[in-house]
Design a protein that fits this description.
Blueprint lengths: L1 H11 L2 H18 L1 H20 L3 H25 L2 H5 L4 H45 L9 H7 L6 H7 L17 H6 L4
Helix pairs in contact: 2-6
Length: 193
């Protein structure tokens, strides 16, 4: 019974739907910024194209070669500074175990921090979605009436089709109850004849 109650409770919780609506609202907001971004890119594109056309390929090749040589030099220095002999000769495995445990705890701490941030983001999206749904439904900020409720409350002219729809439908005849089945004991009690 408690599993059923938990399922019903989770199905009645609108927070995931609000989070989805909040995500959609945020995406729509970001998409509204795209035309301005395209306009800015269109204005800047001729300048960038001219700059690229004016670039000497040999200069670019020299810059890339210098960057690769610098990276190789730094890597070689780091490798030289690394004292692998001291790692091999380290007899204190207790310190090594402690450092590994510290690293594991730091990882758990980071994961917990990410989980907290994810939950906060989820809650923010749910709040945003709740407001977006209220706005889409036409409610004011204070939880006002739904536009559909206001529209339904306004009097409408009766048309022949509407009055035909409003006429009560014929009710179906009452369903018959099946005759009670006789049990084998009741059959034996009846005289045959």
């Amino acid at each position: 019974m408690t599993i059923t109650d938990d399922i019903v409770k989770s199905l009645r919780n609108p927070t995931p739907l609000y989070a989805v609506a909040g995500t959609a609202d945020l995406a729509a907001e970001k998409l509204r910024e795209v035309p301005a971004l395209f306009e800015r890119l269109r204005e800047q594109a001729p300048g960038h194209i001219e700059k690229i056309k004016g670039t000497d390929p040999k200069a670019v090749q020299e810059r890339v070669a210098a960057g690769a040589k610098d990276a190789q030099t730094r890597l070689s220095e780091t490798y030289r500074d690394l004292d692998l002999k001291s790692f091999r000769e380290m007899p204190d495995f207790k310190k090594l175990g402690e450092s590994v445990q510290d690293l594991a705890l730091q990882g758990v701490g980071r994961a917990t921090g990410y989980a907290v941030r994810a939950r906060e983001t989820y809650d923010e999206l749910a709040e945003r979605g709740k407001g977006a749904v209220a706005q889409w439904r036409g409610e004011d900020g204070d939880g006002g009436a739904d536009v559909r409720q206001i529209a339904d409350a306004t009097p409408k002219k009766a048309t022949p089709a509407a009055s035909a729809k409003a006429a009560p439908a014929k009710t179906a005849p009452a369903a018959r109850k099946p005759a009670a089945k006789k049990t084998p004991a009741a059959k034996k009690a009846q005289p045959e004849g």
